[in-house]
Amino acid sequence: MFVIMVYDIKEKRVAKILKISRKYLTWIQNSVFEGDITNANFIKFKYELKKAIKTEEDSIVFYIFRTKAYTDREIIGIEKGKSEAII
Questions:
Q1: Residue 75 belongs to a domain
Q2: Digit-coded pLDDT (tens) for 40-83
Q3: pLDDT at position 85
């Protein structure tokens, strides 16, 4: 599945959420991640996030697509979080 995640987290927990999210998805820009993920890893990812946030103060939203084939991304301005080729 292809997932886009956006979050609004209190500043004191942002670093922890960022670290967890980078294990599973690709950072796109401030508070935004995307990527392909298996169902099993998605379940693990959500479990780790739930343990790290305070549900009465923080918010995480997932947009879930069965495949990336029907998605397009258009960027206006600078591209943040570019995937760089590793040689």
A1: no
A2: 999 999 999 999 999 999 999 999 998 777 778 787 887 877 65
A3: 47
Is residue 10 in some structural domain?
Answer: yes
Would 64 be classed as within a structural domain? yes
pTM score, whole prediction = 0.82
Three-state DSSP class for residue 28: strand
Read off the CATH number of the domain in which 59 is found.
Answer: 3.30.70.240
pLDDT recorded at residue 42? 97
| Best CA proximity match to 5, nearest among 59, 69, 53 | 59
If one counts the domains in the chain, the total is 1
Helices 39-52 and 11-24, interaxial angle, to 10°? 170
- Residues 6 or more apart whose CB falls under 8 angstroms from that of 5 comprise 21, 25, 32, 33, 34, 60, 61, 62, 63
Residue 87 belongs to some domain of the structure = no
Q: How many CB atoms lie within 10 A of CB 25?
A: 22
